[in-house]
Amino acid sequence: MPREIIIAAPVFPRITEYLGAWAFEPSRFATAVEQLQRMDWPKHMSDGAAPLRSYTQLVPTGRDGQAIAVIQADGELMKQQSSMGGTSTVQLRHDIRQAARDPNVSAILLAIDSPGGTVAGTAELANEVTAARRAKPVWAQIEDLGASAAYWFASQADMVFANVATAMVGSVGTIWVWQDDSKKAEQKGVKTFVFSTGSLKGTGAPGTPMTDEQQAYIQGLVNDMQIPFDAAVQKGRGLKPAQMEAIKSGRTFLAPEALKLRLIDGIQPRAATLMQLMKAK
Predict the structure, then answer these.
(1) pTM of this prediction?
(2) Among residues 11, 144, 183, 242, which one has the fewest Cβ atoms lying within 10 Å of its Cβ?
């Protein structure tokens, strides 16, 4: 028998974890950016990072020692544990895999309250949900917010519910923010030269303007990153092309509209979802 390899994620702070593309609800993304700008990065780097945390609760079903594994996904989703809280997608994958293999776990409930997170790590998490469905029922419960990357992996569950009518669901889209600070550098009398092997190699270098070619390049990357997101949602929710077009603007929907658009299967509290899941086969 081959030895099982336990997946793990770094537990040290990495600035680069915050860079790159995000699948994130736009208004909350703006708030997160403001927090990052105010962060004391030298102190953050010297403090170290908290170890990854698992938020799995076992809810007894009352049948032969069986239980439902309730796996919590809160806040920003990143591969490692975010210094601003949130949940590690690597830890979630590990928890889902463990629950899928546990003979005493009859079903899995993904309890989600998240605006989304980094594109990096989300596809693997969505695939983990799909794999777990082959072993036992996997349902998702959106608690007030399940947007972007959070909805990406939630959409791979057998059933998806929102807790109340005011819950926000969707935001199917990818965002990557770049800043052109060339004017600011010019005002300070700074002129930046970039020596590179190609016109795109120095894209986004501080103090340089972004050319039309570079902007098109970044937009192309964002578009390409969105392809697997769209494909996963369309397949997971069984949407026709026209139905998919109606939800992929990046908009977030309140639960009643999300229900009409087939993003979710119902609106009910977690207790009701758990009662139904106890009877699921």
Answers:
(1) 0.83
(2) 242
